[in-house]
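Batch manifest line 307
LIGAND: XIL
JOB: complex structure
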Amino acid sequence: ATTLAGAAQEKGRYFGTAVAANRLSDSTYVGILNREFDSVTAENEMKIDALEPNQNQFVYTNADRIVNHAINQGKKVRGHTLAWHSQQPGWMQNMSGSTLRNAMLNHVTRVATYYRGKIHSWDVVNEAFADGSSGARRDSNLQRTGNDWIEAAFRAARAADPGAKLCYNDYNTDNWQHAKTQAVYRMVQDFKSRGVPIDCVGFQAHFNSGNPVPNNYHTTLQNFADLGVDVQITELDIEGSGTSQAEQYRGVTQACLAVARCTGITVWGIRDTDSWRASGTPLLFDGGGNKKAAYHAVLAALGGSST
Ligand code: XIL
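JOB STATUS: finished
ARTIFACT:
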C-alpha cells in the first residue's frame, strides 16, 4: 500500500488524524486527509463546551461538518470527548454535587444518543488521573461529585450507544513504570472485574524530549490489552525533526503492531502548521503538505511504501 490508511488496513488497523472543522475549506489539507487517513477525531468540535454551550442547548453544526465529511469519505469517527475536567462550558465549570453529576450524565446521554451508530470509539472520559507519583484521581469538579463518576459515565454511554467502543483516554500513561499508568491499569482491571462497560484504553502519546517514547511502550500496551480491552494510540505527536523523530515514530508504530489488540493509531493533526503545539514540527507532513522522514518511517513500519 502507498498510504498510511491503506498500509494500516493491510495490518488490520486504522490510521487516523485529528481534524479541525475550519480547515475543511483548505484543499491541500483535505487532499491529504482524504488520501492518507481512514479515521477522524474532531480536534475540539465534540468537546463539552462546543456541543453544549448553554445547558440543554446542543449545537452540532461544526461537529457534524467533521462527522459528515468522514462518513461521506468512508472513514471511521473517534468521538472525543464526553466527560472531561477541561474545555467545559462556563455554566458547567461552576457546578458541583448532584447537579453537576446529573448535568454530566445528561450530556453523555444526549450526545451519545445523537451520534448513535456513527461513532467507532468514544473517549467517554478523558484525563481523570493526576500526574506525578500519587496514583490518585485528578482533583476536578467531576471527581468531587464522587469517585464513581467515571463508571457512571461509561454506563450512560453504553445505554445510549451500545454499538460504540467505549474508551478511557489519558496522557503520560505510556511508561509502564509510572504511577499514573499503574493507577489507570488498576481502574480498568477493577471495571472489567465488576462488569463496568469499558472496551478500550486510549494513549494520547504526546511525546517530546522531556517525555520521550518509553522503551517499555510495547509492554504497557500489551499489559492493558491483556486485561481484555483494545488499546489505541489516540493523539500521537512527537517533537523533533529528521531521523531521530522518524525513529521514534517508527518505534511507536512497531509497538502498536506488536500488540494484537492495538487496533489503530491517530496523529493529532496533519501538517506541522496544523499542530496544537505553538512551535515545533511534531507531525508527519510539513507546512507545505510534503511527507517528512517521519511519514516514510511510519509507512514502512506498516509494511507500505510510497514508491
Ligand atoms: C487540544 C487541541 O488540540 C487544541 O486546539 C485546544 O486548544 C486544546 O486541546 N489532550 C486532549 C486533546 O485530549 O483534546 C487536546 O487537544 C490535547 C491534549
